[in-house]
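Slide 14.
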Amino acid sequence: MYINTIIISNAKKALVIPLGENNYKIRVDAPAVNGLANARLAEILSEYFGVKTSKISIVKGSKSREKYIYIEGL
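Slide 15: predicted structure.
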């Protein structure tokens, strides 16, 4: 399954907000430094969708707020 995301890093609380079919706004409680926000994003999505962190990969936008993500197994 592919999803489009808008990331808000360094938020007070981690939160996934569905915006529509396969579109999400995600608040990440980690700073966007040295890949910390991307790693935390994978953890948040794995909890939300009930898959392992290794099944989540960023296809496009690894250094951008807008990311295109593939979740294997959905």
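Speaker note: The two ends are 5 Å apart (CA to CA).
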